[in-house]
Structures are given as C-alpha cells and as structure tokens.
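pinned: reference chain
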Amino acid sequence: MAIRINDTEVAVPDDPRVSLLDLLREQLHLTGTKVGCNQGACGACTVLIDGERVLSCLTLAIQADGRSVTTIEGLGSDADPHPLQTAFIEHDGFQCGYCTPGQICAAVAMLREIADCVPSYVTADLAARASLSPEEIRERMSGNLCRCGAHNGIVEAILQVAREEVI
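pinned: its structure tokens
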C-alpha cells in the first residue's frame, strides 16, 4: 500500500485514523499545507488527489492509497514556480500568506473543472463551457477563505493564468 505524494512513493500509515493532513505535516514534514479550522470549513488544507481538490483535514490518508497527491510543494519550486504562484505574487493575491497554498491548489483544480465543463452554482448555461468571470471564480473558490481580504488579487491572478492558458 502506497501513496504517491509529489512524485514520491510513501507508505500508507499503519494507523487508519491518520488524516492526510497529519501525514503530510507531521510525518512527511510538508508544512506548506496548512492547518486551519481542522473541520473542513476554511480550505487552508486543500491539496490535490488525482488532480481534484480535497480537504486534507477531512481525508484519511488511507483514502489516498494508490492515488497521486499533490501539495503546494509539488506544484512548483523556487527556480520554477507554478504560473499561479507567480500570478499570486504579481497581483498581491495574499497578505499573511497562510491561506495561499490552499488557494493555489484549489485554483489549479478549479481551472481544470472549467476546462472539463463542470458547472458551478452560477454557471448560466449548463451545456456550455462556463465563462471565466470574476463571479464564476468567486463561487468556485468560495470554499477557501482569506481572512486578510486578498480576494480581489486572488481573482485577478486566476484570471491572468486562465487568459494565458498556461495550465
């Protein structure tokens, strides 16, 4: 039994009660994924499993067995940052930075959802690809809270990356 985390095979913990968040932070020392509310309400712990966003505080590590997990550390590096990381910096999409890793992971998955024509609550035409409006982005990112109020910068960063179609 193994989980692929940021392209590295990791053994599934012996204790089936270990959350994915605790595995990442406490056992693997991947501290980019943040502990927020630990109840699934803030999105600070958002990571990607097989490209889909999940709240790692509500996901048992064993649920990721045989799957691929990507954390903020796996999206880019100092030398080669992910386009969303660069855009967040350019558009001041963070203040304290605590929610930023979860926001970026959620945005990566959100752009994929739009490309796959997955509608949201505000998608006007369910048969067509969603328009990438600020309202659409705000709805799709509503599960990731920013207590500092950097939402406008976050939306602008996501719009920039989507326009450049680099993802």
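why pinned: The chain has two domains: 2-75, 83-164. Strands lie at 2-5, 8-11, 46-49, 52-55, 68-70.
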